[in-house]
Design goal:
By secondary structure, the protein is an alpha/beta fold. 37% of the residues lie in helices and 21% in strands. The protein contains 14 helices and 22 strands. The strands form four sheets. Strands 1, 2, 3, 4, 5, 6 and 7 form a seven-stranded mixed beta sheet that branches. Strands 17, 18, 19, 20, 21 and 22 form a six-stranded antiparallel beta sheet that branches. A hairpin with a 5-residue loop joins β15 (318-320) and β16. α2 (23-36) crosses α5 and α13 packs across α14. The protein is globular. The two termini are 32 Å apart. The chain binds zinc ion.
């Protein structure tokens, strides 16, 4: 079968539903994936988000899984962490979430798990190769289809162990009409909280704003509502609620690395010395703060699947990404769940007499750019990063090469670094800079960008 290669990505399979994800291809994805799980007693959990194409994809995907002989357990409609929770609590060989995550309404795709681990990278490429080769053995006995509604079990897992010093926290929840709204409200109300819901009804057309809280424009309605109602904070989810966004009472956005500082302090207070992971894009103030509070900071690669694997390997209790994927292995199984992270943030706000905006006032002030995305052809993007690394190493700079090049610049008393990394998901270089002053930030940005441009020209991109 001819398959559009670009939809088989590093962490998931994703494309425009009506164009790329034909019934035939989706059936083959289900069939091929189930065949890769092994030959005996195969059972695959399937959940789906609220996108308009999700029901069609469910039909095709599960037809393929069953043709391979594996059983399907239909968990119904919910957010991605609802599927993760199923994979941790129900005996199954694999699990698939049908979701377009934070992408536009016409896109959709699949996040895959083998047992409790992400199925990604090479595994996704082998699945593609298997489909291309038509290696899809049909079982004489098709698998069964059963339904299992685990929503109350999931809400119980979310709320178990959450201890709120007060339940009158005034907050707005913007679920972006994605799949996380209804269950989040249920969990919050079960704890005695009174959320002010904004766009919490599921609507796969996403009529109010794009379901991605990492883009400032998508937080405008939330910020306006927080200010207008005098709420203490605002919370936002992406379309499948594995990413959390947050704003304080003034409407200032707390990006993933700042949220991670708050959570790290909380975790380290009860588990001194534990390992905590961030990714290469996070502020240096995060890693310094973890160390200052007695933790073991680990800088790791970007990507939720890579972070989850490293979290397990290091027995870390917490991890996070700029994008708002937050992973708690403290009192929780370690998967990225924005509903759970929201409850942990509410726990902190309820306990601390200071407003959320004041909790990080002791962090050193730095100037930091947002993620800057520079177009760069896939064929040369890794060569450019290598050339940048070599340039700065020759210049005597320390360069961290875990994922891209994170270059240290000397600056007394405060963090100063620049990052150039090749995106795993498109023809893009991601750049970010942090320095003690605006001028220094601008200066290192210009220095690095000049080297990037020269390398890109040299490789012909
Ligand atoms: Zn997502």
């Amino acid at each position: 079968m001819q398959v559009p290669r670009s939809i088989f990505r590093e962490y998931d399979i994703r494309g425009v539903a009506d164009r790329d994800l034909t019934d035939e291809l989706v059936r083959a994805i289900g069939h091929g994936f189930a065949s890769m799980l092994g030959s005996v007693a195969r059972r695959v959990l399937v959940a789906r988000d609220c996108r308009l194409s999700s029901d069609r994809l469910f039909e095709a995907l599960t037809a393929g899984i069953r043709a391979s002989g594996a059983d399907v357990v239909d968990l119904g409609v919910g957010p991605t962490p609802y599927l993760y929770n199923g994979a941790f609590e129900v005996e199954a060989d694999g699990a698939i979430m049908i979701t377009g995550s934070h992408n536009a309404g016409d896109e959709n795709g699949f996040k895959l798990m083998r047992g409790r681990a992400s199925f990604f990278g090479e595994a996704i490429q082998s699945l593609r190769a298997r489909i291309e080769a038509g290696d899809l053995p049909v079982s004489t006995v098709p698998g069964a289809l059963t339904s299992l509604d685990r929503k109350s079990a999931y809400v119980a897992a979310l709320t178990k162990g959450i201890r709120l010093a007060r339940t009158d926290v005034r907050f707005v929840l913007d679920a972006g009409n994605g799949a996380g709204g209804p269950l989040a409200l249920e969990a919050m109300r079960a704890l005695g909280l009174k959320p002010d819901p904004l766009f919490c009804e599921m609507d796969g057309t996403f009529p109010n704003h794009h379901p991605d809280p990492t883009v400032e424009a998508n937080l405008e309605a939330l910020i306006a509502r927080v200010r207008e109602t005098g709420a203490e904070l605002g919370l936002a989810f992406d379309g499948d609620a594995d990413r959390l966004g947050a704003v304080d009472a003034q409407g200032n956005i707390l990006w993933g690395d700042k949220l991670l500082v708050l959570f790290a302090r909380e975790v380290l207070a009860t588990h001194p010395g534990s390992a905590i992971l961030g990714e290469v894009k996070c502020s240096q103030t995060l890693y310094d703060d973890i160390a200052k509070h007695g933790g073991r900071p680990i800088v790791w690669k970007t990507g939720h699947s890579l972070i989850k694997a490293k979290l397990k390997e290091e027995h870390a209790l917490l991890a996070g990404e700029m994008s708002g994927h937050l992973f708690f292995a403290d009192r929780y199984p370690g998967y990225d769940d924005a509903l759970y992270a929201a409850l942990r943030l509410l726990e902190i706000v309820a306990k601390d007499p200071r407003p959320l905006g004041a909790l990080l006032s002791d962090l050193p002030t730095t100037f930091v750019t947002p993620e800057l995305r520079v177009p760069c052809a896939d064929a040369i993007k890794f060569d450019v990063v290598r050339a940048v690394t070599e340039h700065f190493e020759r210049a005597g700079r320390e360069v961290l090469t875990i994922d891209g090049a994170r270059i240290s610049f000397a600056a007394p008393g405060a963090p100063c670094w620049g990052l150039v990394r090749a995106s795993n998901t498109g023809p893009v270089l991601v750049l970010r800079f942090e320095a003690p002053t605006r001028e220094q930030c601008q200066a290192i940005r210009e220095e690095v960008e000049t080297v990037v441009r020269a390398a890109r020209d040299r490789f012909g991109g």
